Amino acid sequence: VDPISRILETVHRELAGERGGALADYIPELAGADPDRFGLAVAGVHGTVYRAGDAGEFTIQSVSKPFVLGLALAELGLEAVLARVSAEPSGEPFNAVSLEPGTGRPANPMINAGALLTTSLVPGPGPAERFARILAALSAFAGRPLTVDEATYASEHATGDRNRALAHLMRAAGALTEPVDEVVDTYFRQCAVLVTVADLATMAATLANGGVNPRTGTRVVGERAAGHVLTVMATCGMYDYSGEWLLRVGLPAKSGVSGCVIAASPAQFGIGIFSPPVDERGTSVRAVLAARRLSEAFDLDLVRHPGLSAPVLRRREDTVPATVLDLQGELDFAAAESVLADLLALPAARPLVLDLTAVSRIRPVAAGLLTATLADLARAGVSTALVGSDTGVLTGGRWFPRRADALAWTTTTTNGGRT
Ligand code: GLU
After folding, report:
1. What's this model's pTM, rounded to 2 decimal places?
2. Most informative mutation of 27, 58, 94, 284 for ligand 1 (most atoms within 8 A of CB)
3. Does 26 qualify as catalytic in the annotation?
């Protein structure tokens, strides 16, 4: 067994005895769940899924919301979606009447009102086509064809008057433009889609991976849409526990009243957890505890200071005829900013060799800052040789694959002259 699965197994073993919470019963079908079911999965952004405990299916419930939001964003764009659903944490329970006075615009797409509206935004033309698109999108996020649990769908359809009421209020205010019964029906079906913890981890990892499913390689939504979904999850995904969740776990997340939770760490992994007993907020008790332990074990709190990376300037040589700066690591804003100070202090009239062989990545912001600085230096009479492979992002100097050639070139440039 690999060490990641071992961590999952340890968390599973330590929390299996936790008895807090109760089964949600306002959807009668959920009250029949087995409270001892408990499963965890982590999906990396390279396509491997690690698991412990229960591997069976359960209904996705509100964890469908971020993915339907992703679909709406992909189809309509951020502005069109925001015009209809706000993105403010409501600080209220999942089923609250959190509507903007006058317009009826719901507070955010993670509470029921906002999710009903988001569902209505998915292009149809009719409800059957709309649900087909939603099911196809959820399946693409999971990387396998998903199905609907008809019993849970029927159970919520028979009892979901509060969601119907929310939809009627939004329709009366003009916020919801599609027929109430169609939208509510589609939403109940979307909540009754069956998934496993491995599916949820893969779905979350797809968001973490910029919208590309790491198992299938399929692009499900654009990078911007995936990022926007994670942002809304971070601020609103855990309802009236969102603030404390970010404090304790530090990852964008979403809970569902069947007892499932997803969390995602951008460019790192997705997590899926399932355990039916939920607290008074409708969030799985074991899942919250497990997510806290995993966030600690994987050391990936989103807002924690990442620690100082190695200095970007690896070595400097001021031998005749050139100043040679060796850079290393990833060039981001802070790295470029620290190099700017060295570049701006360079003596005029002496060529510069900027060796980027040990640089792993140049972010666009760093490329922009360095290109502008090299242009300034050229105007001041400093010609620059760049060493490494020219990927086209950094200009303002002459590229050489090998350092020896760059040094040779600097001897041919006249003092302060250009080539
Ligand atoms: N289908 C459930 C409802 O609309 C989802 C709630 C949840 O998972 O938080 O009440």
Report:
1. 0.89
2. 94
3. no
